[in-house]
């Protein structure tokens, strides 16, 4: 089953938010999803402890994943899930190299800043190294995070130009800055268990998460998750 690794060597790039949005949306669409939480902040694990049961048995979070445990934990979750998502620390580490090497697809969250872009570039350099030295080709994309839906900054434009110049695939769906995405971590629950009267633009947050999930699914050959819901059934 496909393994999707989320990586950026800079912390605060919106990586864990991207993991949570994709995990919950894939589960809502009917896929069985496991998240390996290797981030020392354990935000995904904390969210799961406050939200367990909302998605039935379609979403599982494995806490405290480390360099010494990831091999076993990954194999166990691949045996039971349609997708395994790995949330990594925002730093360079041996765990980063291992998790990227296991991936069928690498998603690189980047905010509109030079520091985030450099953190993403570090991951891309690792992917190029694996291709050049070991002939390991791993499909990968950048997803822009915390994007202001009303304003395009010069920094964001510079990041897009840099990605285009380096021919790095950029997802068409950015993750927009939404209160609902922050509230998921603060209060638990999913975008579909929240009260629309208390959370602004909840419908737009739901649309954003769904579009992200569908675009990511299109990056992964359907044969890799044979037996799970098809794109035709969820599009």
TrEMBL record:
Pfam families: VirC1. InterPro entries: DNA_Partitioning_ATPase, P-loop_NTPase, VirC1. Gene3D superfamilies: P-loop containing nucleotide triphosphate hydrolases. It comes from the Bacteria. CDD domains: ParAB_family (cd02042). This is AAA family ATPase. It comes from Shinella kummerowiae.
